[in-house]
Amino acid sequence: MKVAIQMDPIGSVDIDADSTFRLAEEAQARGAELFYYHPDKLAWDEGRVTARGWPLTVQRVRGDHFALGAETTVDLDTFDVVWLRQDPPFDMGYITTTHLLDQLSSALVVNAPTWVRNYPEKLLVLQFPDLTPPTMIARDLDALRAFRARHGDIIIKPLYGNGGAGVFRLAPEDKNLVSLHEMFTGINNEPLIAQKFLPDVSNGDKRIILVDGVPIGAINRVPPEGETRSNLHVGGRAEAVGLTARDREICDAIGPLLREKGQIFVGIDVIGDYLTEINLTSPTGIQELEQFEGINVAGAIWDAIAARLGQGGPATIR
Is 2-114 in CATH node 2.40.320.10? Predict the structure, then answer.
């Protein structure tokens, strides 16, 4: 199997936590040939989708975790699998890569780029209002004020942010809504997302990993003392956790759509009884779940990919 990986610079990844590294490691162990390139080296060239990058080998040695072959330009349709794995922000550069990868006719792109583009993580949840906390997406300050008046204690954050960046809790006595609105709207012309604050976040924000629409396990991310955000990027602590009946109800509701749209590796976020995000672009959590549960999550993902290829590849998911 030939596997191309579109990702951020590999030199800075944490080999004990990075999900892309773990996917590459598992593919290599299965005999795959790896090729690595940066998103800005992706191109449409007179009818071909090409990428300039390097043959890649990986090893679990801190400080010496990868080796590159000679830089070269490849036709991505000569590969069996192309991984879309760069991190957000989900901006026009990111969206353009999904359009280019959509032009591939034989390589299987994971996750399927049409639906990564059409289903940003904070927007796909809008299809499941019965599973989510009260939510508003708006740029208009009066609309946001009215939402806050209804719910009192709210979270406000960028619609296309990631990793916990720019997430603010506005308690009823907090007078910073106007200032935050001015700050965010001065940065870009995107709406904001506001949600009713869920006190259960103090007990953790659960990341559930689904493979081809089926949940295979979860980790709990607990916020540091005095912090609302539980993201691992901002100091959250990962701990083992099981799936509740409500978790399975949520997964049963969203799983068929994810499977139908070729979203093979997905991480959803659940706080208490509520679904808050469905992460498609570059979900994480593989290594933490493997460490806690002793299961080969990366192997399950590659098994699902192999099954897709056996069914005819991308024709089954577009």
Answer: no
Q: Which CATH code of 3.30.70.20, 3.30.470.20, 1.10.246.80, 1.10.3720.10 fits the domain covering 200-313?
A: 3.30.470.20
Q: Report the distance separating Cα 195 and Cα 147, nearest Å.
A: 9
Crossing angle of helices 286-293/297-310, nearest 10°? 120
Please spell the DSSP secondary structure of 102-134, one letter per residue: TT-SSSEEES-HHHHHH--HHHHGGG-TTTS-S
pLDDT in tens, 285-307: 999 999 999 999 999 999 999 99
Q: Which residues are catalytic?
A: 122, 157, 207, 221, 229, 269, 277, 279
Q: Structurally, what CATH architecture does the domain formed by 134-197 represent?
A: 2-Layer Sandwich (3.30)
252 contacts: CB under 8 Å, gap ≥ 6: none
Rounded Cα distance, 36 and 314, in Å: 21
pLDDT of residue 260: 97
Q: Where are the alpha helices (DSSP H) in the chain?
A: 19-29, 92-101, 113-118, 121-124, 141-151, 177-187, 245-260, 286-293, 297-310
Q: How far apart are CA 134 and CA 228, in angstroms?
A: 18
Quick check: helix, strand or coil at residue 61? Answer: coil
Structure token digits, residue 70: 């000679």
- The string of pLDDT tens digits covering residues 146-180 is 999 999 999 999 988 777 678 999 999 999 999 99
Give residue 88's pLDDT: 86
Residues 77-126 have pLDDT tens digits of 999 999 999 998 889 999 999 999 999 999 999 999 999 999 988 899 99
pTM summary value: 0.92
